[in-house]
Design goal:
Layout lengths: L3 H24 L6 H25 L2 H17 L2 H17 L3
Helix pairs in contact: 3-4
Length: 99
């Protein structure tokens, strides 16, 4: 593990917490609409895309296979979190197998 990884994780966790808290505060003042609902539903996908873009830029074949598996599982099961966990497990198995 690189020395900057814990710092990066702490910053990402703090940013996620800030976004959640700001979202709860903002929802007090924003009127409910279809456009707002669509934006809120698209936010987790945008966050996942940002995280996976970093992995793809730094990674190789294993990361590409894991991302493809996550997309396929997500489309099949309609469960984003389960797909992400399964893809991480698959990547770990591929790494353990020597890829």
């Amino acid at each position: 593990m690189s020395p900057s990884l814990p710092a990066m994780l702490a910053v990402m966790a703090a940013a996620a917490l800030f976004c959640r808290m700001a979202g709860y505060m903002a929802m007090r003042f924003l009127p409910r609409s279809n456009r707002l609902d669509a934006a809120l539903k698209a936010t987790p996908l945008a966050v996942m895309a940002g995280i996976t873009a970093q992995a793809m830029a730094a990674g190789g074949v294993v990361e590409a296979l894991a991302l493809g598996a996550a997309m396929a599982i997500s489309l099949w099961t309609r469960n984003d979190v389960g797909a992400a966990v399964a893809a991480v497990a698959g990547a770990a198995l591929l790494r353990a197998a020597g890829f």
